[in-house]
Amino acid sequence: MTIASGAVVSDELRPTAPERPALRYAVAAIAVAMSLYHMYVAGFGPPEAVIFRGTHLVFALTLVYLLYPLRPGRSPAWRGVDLLLLAAGWGFVLHIFVGYDAFVNRIIYIDTLTAWDRVFAVLAVVIVLDATRRVIGWALPLTAIAFLVYAAFFTRVTFDVLLEQLYLSTEGIFGSTLGVSASYVMLFVLFGAFMERSGTGQLFMDFAMSITGHSAGGPGKVAIVSSSLFGTVSGSAVANVMVDGPITIPLMKRTGFRPPFAAAVEAVASTGGQIMPPIMGAAAFVMAEFLAVPYARVALWAAIPALLYYVAVFFAVHFEARRHRLAGVPRSELPRFVTVMAQRGHLFAPIAVVLAGLMLGYSAPLCALAGALVCIPVALLRRTTREGIGWKTWIEALIDGARNTLAVAMACACAGIVIGCVTITGLGIVFTQVVIALAQNSLILALVLTALAGIVLGMGMPTTPAYIVMVSLLVPAIIKLGAVAPAAHMFAFYFAILSAITPPVALAVFAAASLAKADMWKVGLESMRCAAPAYIVPFMFVYEPSLLLIGDAVTSVTSAASAIVGVVCLAAGLHGYLLRECRWWERIALLAAALLLIKPGLVSDAIGLGLLAVVLATQRIGRASATAPR
Q1: Contact 615, 589 (CB under 8 A)
Q2: Which among 57, 95, 135, 444 is least buried, having the fewest CB atoms inside 10 angstroms?
Q3: What is the pLDDT of residues 68-87, one digit of tens each?
Q4: 3-class SS of residue 550
Q5: Is 2 helix (H, G, I), strand (E, B) or coil?
Q6: What are phi and psi of 583, to 5 degrees?
Q7: 429-468: buried (b, 16+ CB within 10 Å) or exposed (e) per residue?
Q8: Rounded to the nearest 5 degrees, what angle is found at the Cα of 180, between the Cα atoms of 11 and 132?
Q9: Strands, DSSP E only, in 228-374?
Q10: DSSP string, 402-443
Q11: Looking at residue 57, what is its pLDDT?
Q12: Is 529 exposed, middle or buried (0-12, 13-18, 19+ CB in 10 A)?
């Protein structure tokens, strides 16, 4: 198994190094050119939308067909097929570029298509489906094919209108989702590649070890801190697991954690990286585009739910460790915080640059570009971090950035086919009516249906296309039933992400279980227990958007404070430990208190705090009597 932009892919989908040196150099040169082009655009502004998106797609298609051959290791004839398909990919993009004036001036759905328009439109759909299949597997292409079949054979949309929608408009392949990949995702993936090459991963691990490694369940808390930090760079659940897991999972097992629990902690902590500001998963940038708001605002909305997520996981580890009397790592084996910050602390500077730029109102791509450009110069500032850094580091980071973007670029292009079909057929409206009918005008039932759909969609495709499909089909129904748009979109985003830790198909769980040599189902159940608040909080912020920092500041602060206490209670109830091991009725009381406290509202908060106070009192009395001399 290997990684491709946040998805675990089979060996068949693993990028294959070109067999000839000349081709390897060509791949490297194309990847470097792709990265440099997008860096130039971020600094000096993009060309017209279709030109920019088409250029991004040409770069991505070229690398996909060179790195993901149809039959790896087979005869040169198969490579000829790949090159023929690549030529077709260049052809359908260049057809628009060469006739760009006609493309801009034509009256859509009125001017008739030429024969070449039809040929290249069909080629565009086929090539995008095939290239997407090569990178991320069949799930998303089959979904797109299902929508194509519906549009072509079960509606009154003519074949020409469908082709025009998908190819000659900005509502299909060249739509806003591909624009997000070109404008945002590419730059932030580049930023992550530069940070990784400059040695920031080691900083994250040493930083986490120095501040939490000595406490009860220290290695589990190290996994949480390091994965949340790494998630700000990668935004990929499985990538986080595969980077942190080989270190943290054996360390957790060595200090006494059960293998399924150790794997679950790493899986859940890594999955949270996609909701961790300032740099979240790629779908967050798509959300900013759909809602027409700055990306910084999306990151602000995610702040409290991300905090609640990691507080819950942190206390799940703490209570599990205390219940089983697990100690941390001896301080003598841990790096000292002062030493870590003195030797590597300056490597936090690129993240600070990105944060400062976003807070000052600069565009997200420009902030990512600035952060990427300072990574290597910052690493060169001190002898402790400059080892191995040279001109090759720049080249390697540029190559990594381009290659790591391919899965997202093709997923966004393929998702454009889905969006085009939904838009031209009016399927979104029909689906909204169906959801409302099934929910019988009940918002809670609509939310449950959307949550289940998000988990199911996320099982077969990456977070970004899963979120896009949900926005096209389900989110309008939630909004129509009374949810505010940011909360509805964030709800869909969260449940698309949670599929990574929700059995039966849980990619982050698969990755962590393989590292821990543990049963996948046990790891999946432990993951859901550790991340239980993540399944509850989205429902709460739909009903009370103050948890997204929308509305009155005082309400947001009080709602956040009570919710933090609530997720601690939930972790205590699920893991059976607060001040000491809980009795059955104490666990029930803690779970009830958790739900009441997570739900915003003064009355519910007061009742929840009362239940917590009762449990604390009985636990203190019980602990005092247990330790009293006899």
Answers
A1: yes
A2: 444
A3: 988 766 556 667 889 999 99
A4: coil
A5: strand
A6: -80, 165
A7: eebbeebbeebeeebeebbebbbebbbebbbbbbbbbbbb
A8: 25
A9: none
A10: HHHHHHHHHHHHHHHHHHHHHHHHTHHHHHHHHHHHHHTT-H
A11: 97
A12: middle
What letter represents residue 349's amino acid? A
The model carries a pTM of: 0.81
The residue type found at 43 is G
> In this structure, what token pair is assigned to residue 145?
């094919």
215-249: string of b/e by CB count within 10 Å (b at 16+)? bbbbbbbbbbbbbbbbbbbbbbbbbbbbbbbebbb
- For the chain, list residues with pLDDT below 50: 1-12
In 10 A of CB 617, how many CB atoms?
10
| Cα(455)–Cα(464) distance, integer angstroms | 13
304 touches 549 (CB < 8 A): yes
For residue 417 the two structure tokens come to: 């086919």
Cβ pair 505, 289 in contact under 8 A: no
Question: Is 7 in contact with 238 (CB distance < 8 Å)?
Answer: yes
Number of other residues whose CB lies within 10 A of the CB of residue 169? 18
Cβ 462 vs Cβ 507: under 8 Å: no
**Three-state secondary-structure class, residue 9:** strand
The three-class DSSP label of residue 3 is strand
CA distance 523 to 262: 8
Instruction: Evaluate whether 485 touches 164 at the Cβ level (below 8 Å).
Output: no
Q: Are 319 and 572 in contact (CB under 8 A)?
A: yes
Query: Which helix (H) or strand (E) element contains residue 8?
Result: strand 7-9
Closest by CA to 421, choosing from 472, 492, 474, 479, is 472
Closest to 449 in 3D by CA, of 418, 479, 492: 492
Gap between the Cα atoms of 361 and 331, Å rounded: 42
User: Among all chains, which residue has been given the structure tokens 């500032």?
Assistant: 381
CB proximity list for 614: less than 8 A, separation 6 or greater: 589
| Encoded tokens for 198 | 């400059």
Please give the full DSSP string across 214-232, using - where no structure is assigned: TSTTHHHHHHHHHHHHHHH
State the maximum Cα–Cα separation within the chain, in Å, rounded to a whole number: 95
At residue 253, what is the residue type? K
**Amino acid symbol at 17:** A
Q: Is the peptide bond before 278 cis (omega within 30 degrees of 0)?
A: yes
